Amino acid sequence: MTRRKPRFIQTHQSDSHDERSAAIAGLMRTPADASPKYFYDRLGSHLFDAITELPEYYPTRTEAAIFAAHGAEMAQQIGGRSTFIDLGAGNCAKAASLLPLLDPARYVAVDISADYLRDALRRLQKEHHALDVVGVGMDFSHSPTLPSGVLSQEDRTVFFYPGSSIGNFTPDEAATFLAGIRAQVHGGGLLIGVDLVKPKAVLEAAYDDALGVTAAFNLNLLRNLNRSVGTDFDPRQWRHVALFNEGASRIEMHLEARREVDVRWPNGRRWFREGERIHTEISCKYTVDSFAALLGRAGFQSNQCWTSADGWFAVFWARV
Question: Is residue 272 included in any domain, yes or no?
């Protein structure tokens, strides 16, 4: 048997003029903000993998338990020989656990961290010699629309968006994002992980662990901005802050200046006061009913929902 090799399509350019302009505009806002896509350089991707191993970080193991308990039932509903599109694939581990059950004709892995994704796909291809594997290095934070030529009208498309990453959008943004996925679904659907509302103490511990791994992940955003945008952040001058905003039902992550800081970049600068924050991420938490309604806004039907035994996490299978 001839062994396949992963194909790779690179669309994301981290030093593009528009991206720099958008990042600087965020730093100049009050309050300042930075896109969570800057978490995910190679180091940031490894740090996130470490986060998923922490005892405080329940989403990964809770979602994995749902897949382990109900994977066969999911596969029966989803059907085989699809084009399986993994958004935010990372190390591809979640998809890899489902591939034997789903038996797709093609696996399309999408991630902003292109170098990290290349390494992951090489490993995955060794385990699945005959599978057509395609990597797309792409920033899909604004739109999930895949580059021309990745999908064809003949593909039966199944999108996979695990890990509760949909929570990184506001509900209105999420509805728009999901509608963008729905527009690319032909004969298949969307398998998506969703973090559910739970006690505040559990949520805040998950995003502010005792070892400080999440803090390092958040601070690495500054290092990535330095490389991508030309800023001169010193991560030692900032601290990680994570809190649950109960009114908005979301975790918020910030970076807070430990003292007055002068941050510079080519042709610009900003003074941050002691205690001033840069908003780096949200993670919205839903109920089963509220997320089913969100899927409906985007044009999906919520055909099936599986929840963990503790009611902390859900996986939805949604068709058009």
Answer: yes
- Kindly state whether residues 215 and 264 are assigned to the same domain: yes
**DSSP character for 53?**
T
Q: Environment class of residue 179 by beta-carbon count within 10 Å: exposed (0-12), middle (13-18) or buried (19+)?
A: middle
pLDDT at 12 over 70: no
pLDDT tens digits, 130-161: 999 999 999 999 899 999 999 998 999 999 99
Specify whether 111 is located in the same domain as 236: no
Stated as kind and residue range, the H or E segment containing 47 is helix 42-51
DSSP letter (8 states) at residue 104: -
Helix (H, G, I), strand (E, B) or coil at 302: strand
Distances (CA, A) of 320 to 41, 98, 183, 230, 317: 34, 22, 9, 43, 10
Question: Token match 């924050």: residue?
Answer: 277
User: Is the same domain home to 144 and 155?
Assistant: yes
- In this structure, what token pair is assigned to residue 223? 């290092």
Residue 7 contacts residue 117 (beta carbons within 8 Å): no
**How many whole angstroms separate alpha carbon 40 and alpha carbon 138?**
12
- Average pLDDT across the chain, whole number: 95
Per the structure, the count of domains in the chain is 2
Residue 44 lies in a domain: no
Contact at 8 Å (CB) between 102 and 81?
no
| Partner residues linked to 277 by β-bridges | 256
Q: Where are the alpha helices (DSSP H) in 208-317?
A: 213-229, 288-297
Q: What is d(CA 307, CA 186) in angstroms, rounded to the nearest whole number?
A: 26
C-alpha span between 113 and 60 (Å, rounded): 19
Cα 262 vs. chain centroid, distance in angstroms?
31
